[in-house]
Design goal:
This protein has 90 residues and is an all-alpha fold. It has one domain. 94% of the residues lie in helices and 0% in strands. Keywords: Coiled coil.
């Protein structure tokens, strides 16, 4: 029941906005279009910045993972060498 009321209210608001826009002067319509384009540009910039930030974090995480892999590989090699040396001593 609440969803249908909300949807109905949204539909009514959309109809009112359409009517209001339809009855605006050309100058007012241009202002509205300008505001919409500005909001779209800001949204696009924000999503682009977010994507760049996430790409940087992913690159850093991959680099750290590769470093950890290298450290683990070196440690495993050291352990294998130590075991081999101790096996020779036995």
């Amino acid at each position: 029941m609440k969803k249908s009321r909300g949807l109905l209210a949204l539909l009514g608001l959309g109809a009112f906005a359409f009517w209001k826009y339809k009855n605006m002067s050309p100058d007012e319509k241009d202002k509205v279009k300008g505001k919409i384009n500005e909001a779209k540009r800001k949204f696009s910039d924000a999503t682009s910045d977010l994507k760049d930030s996430l790409d940087n974090k992913i690159s850093q995480a991959k680099a750290e993972l590769n470093d950890l892999k290298d450290q683990a590989r070196k440690e495993a090699e050291n352990v294998a060498e130590n075991v081999a040396e101790e096996a020779k001593n036995i």
